[in-house]
Design brief:
- There is one protein chain.
- By secondary structure, this protein is α/β, with parallel strands linked by helices.
- It folds into three domains: 9-96, Fumarate Reductase Iron-sulfur Protein, Chain B, domain 2, CATH 1.10.1060; 104-251, 3-Layer(aba) Sandwich (Rossmann fold), CATH 3.40.50; 259-381, Rossmann fold, CATH 3.40.50.
- It contains 16 helices and eight strands.
- It has helices spanning 9-16, 30-34, 45-54, 72-76, 83-96, 104-116, 151-155, 160-172, 189-193, 197-213, 224-233, 246-255, 285-292, 329-339, 350-363, 374-381; strands at residues 145-148, 177-178, 218-221, 242-245, 268-271, 298-300, 344-347, 370-373.
- Strands 2-1-3-4 form a four-stranded parallel beta sheet, with helices on both faces.
- Helix 11 links the parallel strand 3 and strand 4 (242-245).
- It starts with 8 loop residues before the first helix and ends with a helix.
- Bound molecules: iron/sulfur cluster (2 copies).
- The site of one iron/sulfur cluster has 16 residues, from helix 2, helix 4 and helix 5.
Length: 382
Amino acid sequence: MESVTPFKEVADIIKEEGGDAFKLCYQCGTCTAACPWHMVRNFPPRRMIHQAQLGLSDFEAEDMWLCVTCNACVQRCPRGVEIIDIMRALRRSITSLGVAQAPDALRMTIKNISSLGNPLGEPAEKRVDWAKDLDVKTYTEGTEVLYFSCCIPAYDAKIQRAARATVKILKQAEIDFGILDGTENCCGESVRKVGDENLFQRLAQNNIAIFNKNRVTKIVVTSPHCYHSFKNEYPELGGKFEVWHFSQYLAELIKEGRLKFTQEINKRVTYHDPCYLGRHNDIYQAPRQVLESIPGLELVEMAYCRENSLCCGGGGGRIWMETKKGERFSDTRIEQALEVGAEIMAVACPYCMSNLDDSLLTSGKEESLEIRDIAELVQQAL
Ligand code: SF4
Ligand code: SF4
């Protein structure tokens, strides 16, 4: 295995990312214990922080790409160390300094995003094909809501069901909404987490310019990753918008009586908290309120839920990298859902849907469990 050689520049990059927080680390190891990787392999964030403090690193190159940015360690660190920022800076330093390369699959994805604006390598003009038969208008100035679908539902036929259900619900609630014309690009959230800051800035600036040109004020998103970047990262670049995750928006529509359920879903359902909705943005209640409002549905919790939810394995750019069998968190998540007798695992993130769909397929448990987006369940019950 390739070994990363010493570098001092990491301290400068971390400083540029927003401070000297890593100097606070007193090596207690809480982060290593909190990290989901400890379930499946040796990956000690504590040691990586130590190496970064010393301005050097001689760990395995593969370790640099393992962090799924799930925030479990940051939430528990007693010293407030911004561990994800350090991981991001480590990645940025080794790639920008040419000390080591990113994994092949990641490099290919970054190339796709850079040249075509999406991770799947599809043409930009096909970005809105998923909505062709749904009679959705193109967003123009004065439209109340911009619906931003995320690249994965836009291009991946298996995940499109989340975006299509969302559109049907918005129509039923008579919301004045539109989608963009395909000139928008990936939100860039994962690009930033893999350390390609320049590309992130370019993607964000392009989207902000398009939103501003169309006088967008309110954005509803399917992906917690889009939510996180639009809400917490775009303002740094001058893009200030009212951002709603679809689960929050749905909870409001139901509260206001704009959606009326007519069908029961008599199933035992468990909800998988996505890291970027829960731990990163404190949204735990809205998706549960939506599910609990569906007639007949019984909501059960897995042992790892809310702040302790188990990452699907897709954050931090891991969605684009190969994870060995036996090391996939989503496989464990399927087992956890089955342990509580769930017939449906409800999700609220395209990355989670993609990973959990794959794990369900390889587990051979499709007879016992289904993976459904919250929007799909709501649409079914309307
Ligand atoms: S939990 Fe915080 S203080 Fe403890 S080792 Fe990890 S980064 Fe350092
Ligand atoms: S963010 Fe998650 S995956 Fe990354 S080091 Fe922290 S606990 Fe581990």
